[in-house]
Amino acid sequence: MNILFLSVIFCLIFTSFVVEMIRQRRISERYSLLWLILGFVMLFFSLFPTLLNHISQAIGIVYGTSLLFFIGFLFSLVFIMHLTTVITKLDRKMTRLTQEFALLKSRQEEATDDHYPDRSL
Q1: Can you give the residue range of the structural domain that contains 88?
Q2: What is the pLDDT of residues 56-70, one digit of tens each?
């Protein structure tokens, strides 16, 4: 079996897997767009491998597969950085919500103690 045929099949399976995850709402649309772009780029280079070789030689990379791995590595770094910023933002929101909840709970307990002074015993 030809490696080009396998790569096209893999790219189609990968892309359909991402679409299925979107359909089942297991992945957000904003993240799915990145994965769909990656799937289509891989499919494009799988269908036209000579283009990948020409691009790699034009920028001074000997093997086209090395360029593909480099692109994948850069994609991974960018995606990890994006997820890190999202996690940091969510962590800050969680800390803020926890603090606000503690303040509201404290105020509620004070209000309850004011109405029922014998309850503290």
Answers
A1: 64-115
A2: 999 999 888 888 888
